[in-house]
Each structure stands twice: as structure tokens, then as C-alpha cells.
């Protein structure tokens, strides 16, 4: 009899160690304790045993059953804690690892450039003002001494919204708007987007940014203009910059100049960037034309002033060594992270 007991329980002990999951455990359990299981088969035999031995045999079978149940219960508890342990291992998180880094945004170079220019000019008393991008032809051209028949108007042909409403071609109309609403003296700079019918390439874009400057006071001369621009370009590009005024024509200034700065790449000796001249064209400027002053109701006998305009992309490209203007608008992360 003991052999039977040992055979059953040893087999159970062996199998119970091989069980890997709940399903396998259930199969094993029913193999031993199920209706058709080995122990049930023994139970069925109790009635067949002779009367005198039946009690003893019954007790024997019940003991086996009890032992098997205990073994299985213990195995089930072990299995549960093993599964739990594995689950925990799988979901383990190393809280000492550094977290995922978020990329921090940068101020766009164009905004940065406008801010730098504004910081330079605000230190010498200039105020920042803004004007609309949708502008009347009167503010954009006529008031700036550029009547309809004027050939200079063709050079800045633009996007017309209506006959006399356009996307501004330059920031110069902000001069007009400011003078119309403010009494002199005044000193302002005005950054913003401007629009021209240009094909995009490395140095052109149908929408780009300018910064306009305007200074109105009594007894203003070209000397004031030159000193102001020298100060601005020195502060912006660094070093000690020289400025060259080349006489040029803009309808709203007289005299008018194209302004060059000595090349910051070769120090004026001549290189690829300055095409061997030692100078880089950077601004348009001049003394505000008396007709412009009259158009806004200022008396040119009392008030004079100078004005200048520069391209934000242009000065940023020179300062940061950017070869293609289109980079500013592509939003390539590698460029923006400069
Ligand atoms: N508005 C001119 C342009 O877009 C630039 C300019 C030239 C502005 C001379 C000025 C100036 O204020 O005095 O090309």
C-alpha cells in the first residue's frame, strides 16, 4: 500500500516542480484530484475493498488526498509569487536614470537680430514702433516723394490687394505714419516684414524683414547720420567698424547714400565676401527729403532728419556666416539650433 502512496506523491512532487504557469498547474491538479484523476480512482476502489479493511483503506486514501492537496496548495502559492516576481522584474524602472531631455527652443535668428539692433538703438534713446504690413500706396510711395509716374516705383513693384492697397515694399512708410502722429523731435526704429515680387534664391525672398530708422531734430547733418551708423555697425558686428557713404538715389532722401561697412571678414583687405573691394553694402540712408517733411506737416526750414533702412536677413547672414537666405524660413532644426 505504501508503494502506491509513494508512487502517487513522488510523481506529484516531481511534476509540481515543472509547472510554469497557471494553466499547467490546473492540468496537473485535475490529473491527481480531478474526477478522473488518480486519487479519485483510488476512492472509487474503497467500496470494493473487503469490509474489515475498508475503513483502513478509506483513511489511507484520504490521507493521500490530503497530502496531495497540501502539496498542490503550496505549489500554487509558490507559483503565484514566482509570477508576481517576474511581473515586477519586467516592469522594473531604474529611477536613477536621467529623464528624457526635452529640446529647449531658441529665439529665431531674425528675432534675435531685431532684438540686438533694438538694444543698440534703445541705448541711445530710440523708441521702437511698428506699422501695418498691408499699406496704402500713399504711405508706401506718394508720401515718400515717389508719385505714381516715378520710375523708382517700378523697382519695388509688389503685391496689390486693391488699386491703392498693397503689401508694403519697405518699412519706410512707418516714417510717414510716425511723423503724422508725433511731434518732432523723434528717434525711432521700426522692424517688420516687407514684400516684393522677387523669385526666391540665396539672396532674395518675396517676404523678408527690414529695420527702418528715423531721427528728426533741429540742425541734423550727414555727420550725425554717419556717426550713428558707425556706432550701430560697430556695436552689431563688433570690432571698430568704418562706414563709407556712396552717393545714391532714393526719392525720400536728399542727399541719399548706399552705405558700406568695412569687411568684417578680411578687415578691409579684400576677400571673397566683399568681392575684393574691402567694403560690404549694408544700408540705404540719407537726409529726409524736404518734400517728405512737408507731406507730414513738418516745416523743413525748422526740422531736418536722417533715415536709414537695412535688411534684417542681410545683416544676420553677414554676422552668422549664413550663405542662403532661405535657411531662415525652412525651419530646419539644425539651423534653428545654431
Ligand atoms: N526703403 C529703402 C529700400 O527698401 C531703404 C532705404 C533707403 C531706407 C534710404 C531709408 C533710406 O530710410 O533713407 O530699399
UniProtKB/TrEMBL annotation:
A GO cellular component entry from the record: cytoplasm
Main location, first listed in the record: cytoplasm
InterPro entries, per the entry: aa-tRNA-synth_II, aa-tRNA-synth_II/BPL/LPL, Phe-tRNA-synth_IIc_asu, Phe-tRNA_ligase_II_N, Phe_tRNA_ligase_alpha1_bac, Phenylalanyl-tRNA_Synthase, tRNA-bd_arm
Cofactor binding note from Swiss-Prot or TrEMBL: Binds 2 magnesium ions per tetramer.
Domain Aminoacyl-transfer RNA synthetases class-II family profile: 110-318
The EC number(s) this enzyme carries: 6.1.1.20
Domain of life (superkingdom): Bacteria
PROSITE patterns membership: AA_TRNA_LIGASE_II
Gene3D superfamilies attached to this UniProt entry: Bira Bifunctional Protein, Domain 2
Swiss-Prot/TrEMBL keywords: Aminoacyl-tRNA synthetase, ATP-binding, Cytoplasm, Ligase, Magnesium, Metal-binding, Nucleotide-binding, Protein biosynthesis
Pfam families recorded: Phe_tRNA-synt_N, tRNA-synt_2d
Catalytic activity entry: tRNA(Phe) + L-phenylalanine + ATP = L-phenylalanyl-tRNA(Phe) + AMP + diphosphate + H(+)
GO terms of molecular function: ATP binding; magnesium ion binding; phenylalanine-tRNA ligase activity; tRNA binding
Compartment(s): Cytoplasm
GO BP annotations listed: phenylalanyl-tRNA aminoacylation
Cofactor: Mg(2+)
Positions bound to Mg(2+): 254
Self-association and partners: Tetramer of two alpha and two beta subunits.
Family: Belongs to the class-II aminoacyl-tRNA synthetase family. Phe-tRNA synthetase alpha subunit type 1 subfamily.
Family matches, as HAMAP family: Phe_tRNA_synth_alpha1
Protein name: Phenylalanine--tRNA ligase alpha subunit
Organism: Marinitoga hydrogenitolerans (strain DSM 16785 / JCM 12826 / AT1271)
Designated gene of the protein: pheS
Amino acid at each position: 500500500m505504501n508503494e502506491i502512496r509513494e508512487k502517487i506523491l513522488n510523481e506529484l512532487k516531481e511534476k509540481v516542480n515543472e509547472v510554469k504557469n497557471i494553466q499547467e498547474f490546473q492540468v496537473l491538479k485535475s490529473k491527481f484530484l480531478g474526477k478522473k484523476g488518480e486519487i479519485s480512482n483510488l476512492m472509487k476502489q474503497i467500496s470494493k475493498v473487503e469490509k474489515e479493511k475498508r475503513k483502513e483503506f478509506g483513511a489511507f486514501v484520504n490521507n493521500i488526498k490530503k497530502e496531495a492537496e497540501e502539496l498542490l496548495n503550496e505549489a500554487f502559492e509558490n507559483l503565484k509569487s514566482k509570477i508576481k516576481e517576474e511581473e515586477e522584474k519586467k516592469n522594473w524602472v531604474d529611477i536613477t536614470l536621467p529623464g528624457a531631455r526635452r529640446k529647449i527652443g531658441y529665439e529665431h535668428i531674425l528675432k534675435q537680430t531685431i532684438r540686438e539692433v533694438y538694444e543698440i538703438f534703445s541705448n541711445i534713446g530710440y523708441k521702437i514702433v511698428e506699422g501695418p504690413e498691408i499699406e496704402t500706396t500713399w504711405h508706401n510711395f506718394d508720401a515718400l516723394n515717389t508719385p505714381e509716374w516715378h520710375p523708382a516705383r517700378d523697382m519695388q513693384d509688389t503685391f496689390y490687394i486693391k488699386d491703392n492697397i498693397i503689401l508694403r515694399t519697405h518699412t519706410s512708410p512707418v516714417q510717414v505714419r510716425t511723423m503724422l502722429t508725433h511731434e518732432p523731435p523723434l528717434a525711432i526704429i521700426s522692424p517688420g516684414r516687407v514684400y516684393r515680387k522677387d523669385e526666391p534664391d540665396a539672396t532674395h525672398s518675396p517676404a523678408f524683414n527690414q529695420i527702418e530708422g528715423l531721427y528728426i531734430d533741429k540742425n541734423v547733418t550727414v555727420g550725425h547720420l554717419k556717426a550713428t551708423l558707425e556706432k550701430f555697425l560697430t556695436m552689431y558686428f563688433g570690432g571698430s567698424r568704418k562706414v563709407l557713404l556712396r552717393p545714391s538715389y532714393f526719392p525720400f532722401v536728399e542727399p541719399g547714400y548706399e552705405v558700406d561697412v568695412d569687411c568684417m571678414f578680411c578687415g578691409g583687405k579684400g576677400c571673397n565676401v566683399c568681392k575684393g573691394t574691402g567694403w560690404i553694402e549694408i544700408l540705404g540712408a540719407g537726409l529726409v527729403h524736404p518734400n517728405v517733411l512737408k507731406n507730414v506737416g513738418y516745416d523743413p526750414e525748422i526740422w531736418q532728419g536722417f533715415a536709414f533702412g537695412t535688411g534684417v536677413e542681410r545683416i544676420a547672414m553677414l554676422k552668422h556666416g549664413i550663405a542662403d537666405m532661405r535657411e531662415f524660413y525652412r525651419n530646419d532644426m539644425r539651423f534653428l539650433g545654431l
